[in-house]
Amino acid sequence: MNALLVMLEQASRDKPVTRERIRGMFRVSDRAAREMIERLRDSGYPVIGTSDTRGYWIAKNEEELLMFLRNYTAKAKTIQDRADKMCQTFYQERMDV
Q: What is the mean pLDDT of the chain?
């Protein structure tokens, strides 16, 4: 994990580390590469990843961190809203029977 952290610290928005590079460097599956990134985030490292850059890097400043956190928390809210709607629909259909 230390090698990945070093890679990410040296990366930037302009030169992110792609999952393909992580897979090749560590000889892991795509899923394992995503899990490696999540473990770093779970440990508190501000690993930035955006769809437009197609890669990852450690936040270099507060602006990068806050931009990522806004998007990250918005995704979480969207997922929670969908889950709530599924539960509502599931139970409503059973009450209508």
A: 93
Q: How far apart are CA 77 and CA 80, in angstroms?
A: 5
User: What is the Cα–Cα distance from 33 to 28, expressed in whole angstroms?
Assistant: 6
- Say what angle helices 30-42 and 2-10 make with each other, to 10 degrees: 80
Segment 81-95 mean pLDDT: 92
SS3 of the chain: CHHHHHHHHHCCCCCCECHHHHHHHHCCCHHHHHHHHHHHHHCCCCEEEECCCCEEEECCCHHHHHHHHHHHHHHHHHHHHHHHHHHHHHHHHHHCC
pTM, whole model, 2 decimals?
Answer: 0.81
Q: Is pLDDT of 15 > 70? A: yes
